[in-house]
Amino acid sequence: MPATKDYKLLTTDGYTFAQNLVANAILQVQSGKIDASIQMMNVPLPATNAILDQFSQILSGLFPLFLVLIFMGPIYSTVYGLVLEKQNRSKESMRMMGMTDLPYWLSWFAFYTIQTTIIAFIGWLSLCINVLKNGGSGYIFLYMWLFGVSCFGQIIFFQSFFQRAKYSGLVSVLIFFLLVFVNLPISTSGSSGLKGILSLIP
Predict the structure, then answer these.
(1) Against a cut of 0.85, is the pTM above it?
(2) Distance CA 144, CA 119 (A)
(3) Domain locations along the chain
(4) Could you identify which of 50, 72, 98, 169 might form a hypothetical disulfide with 80, taking C-beta atoms 3.0 to 4.6 angstroms apart as the criterion?
């Protein structure tokens, strides 16, 4: 029975002790040498030199602020337009003519998504010129575009608090900008439950 203990103990890299014994026995028979044996060793996989990009560490701190700044324009114009339609009772007029809520909100979402796509593409293109040299730039575009689209839910939330369009866009953009600074204390010392709740904010 001690052989079973050795079999379990000497398992390395997928080769068992029993497989090594069989391989050594075959080698000794074929070569005619009693002391012939197969020695196992680990060799690291050859890889190219790693590139240390210190700019990426700086960019990780500035990129959220960059995203907020480039999406302030569409958020302002969309909130202002929604509240202006509410103020002028255009939505009620369209309802009287038979339009339901689904095409109304889909049209606003399509308008906002087109704006977001153009802005995300221009921002991504400007980063691709000299900044994003060592990474997958397609993921950056996807990240920027998804962030912009996710802000539409915040736009719907903001516009529900305003009845007059005069200051609606300005106050919404100001709140949107200030929410960036919520991330700083929460990311360092917040609980996981609080982080989960606040992750709903773009």
Answers:
(1) no
(2) 9
(3) 1-43, 54-198
(4) 169
